[in-house]
Amino acid sequence: MGGHDLDRxxxxxxxxxxxxxxxxxxxxxxxxxxxxxxxxxxxxWTTEELCSEPWLSFVHPxxxxxxxxxxxxxxxxxxxxxxxxxxxxxxxAYRRLxxxxxxxxxxQLIYGVVRLVPEPPAVPVSVPGGPGGSRTRVLIVDxxxxxxxxxxxxxxxxxxxxxxHGPEALAxxxxxxxxxxxxxxxxxxxxxxxxxxxxxxxxxxxxxxRLAFVTGGAHTPEAQAFLSAAPHPCLEKxxxxxxxxxxxxxVSQ
Length: 253
What we know:
The chain contains 10 helices and 10 strands. By secondary structure, the chain is α/β, with parallel strands linked by helices. It has a 5-stranded antiparallel beta sheet. Strands 7-6-8-9-10 form a 5-stranded parallel beta sheet. Helix 5 (145-154) links the parallel strand 6 and strand 7 (159-163).
């Protein structure tokens, strides 16, 4: 590579780093390969965190189907313009993004420029199941992103926030977020269910009263003893959507 080529490469790196827009290079495998620092400013995640998981794990459950279709469009060689979806921020909130993307089929890559779309003021929507008929605020704590996404789809008529581990949930509560229902996995490797429950009781007793567990099974004597003693319902995985909805309705009352 000649000196002029190196200069051009360095210049492109500088522009990539300094751009206010969210710039992205992604693979046809469904993962980001390169993101500029503007992504961290917009969503709170580091670029390494965003690149470490499939991009669908950050997409709002209601936007998954459209996002998959957009990816298929790009992989077919077509340009994508003015496509919007919602991405999960580190604090659990969602921000709407608008995408302009072009694919390179031979390289199996997607190049995109993304901008933040201001959200209009939220309008309360009344649906069955929430206190007083309002939307139920549900916090899902599960380190398996596929499970959290499935639960989010089932509960799409509620206001759903999903985090991977107990410390993230505690941080949301410490920041003033309130939830009508908290659905927690029992066997998180970072903060198991009993430890998460103890932290809630100690620091957020009102939130502790809204806790329910969704678990693949209490496989240890300690977990079984905890569930037997804890005054909280537990739903076994796999579950039917109707069971999950019934659990949320019961806890939110």
